[in-house]
Design brief:
This protein is mainly α. It contains three helices and no strands. The chain has one domain.
């Protein structure tokens, strides 16, 4: 059986993994722009979890995705 401290560590790791995954998928969306809508929808769904890390990273990635759709020619650079 897991202790409370171990359970908190696992939960924190899961949040960090999801937040980093958003960044990786964003970089893939720069290459495969058909992923932009799917990634936006997934991030909006994940933000419903309410964890501060997911909400903050999601807000940052959604802002970057909005810039891609507004100015697609500048999306060729990886940021």
């Amino acid at each position: 059986m897991m202790s409370l401290q171990e359970a908190e560590c696992v939960a924190t790791s899961a949040i960090a993994i999801k937040a980093y995954s958003m960044e990786v998928l964003y970089k893939l969306a720069l290459i495969y722009q058909e992923l932009i809508n799917e990634l936006s929808a997934s991030i909006n769904m994940l933000q419903g979890e309410g964890s501060a890390g997911i909400i903050a990273r999601g807000r940052i990635i959604l802002k970057k995705l909005a810039e891609i759709t507004i100015n697609p020619k500048s999306s060729q650079k990886l940021s």
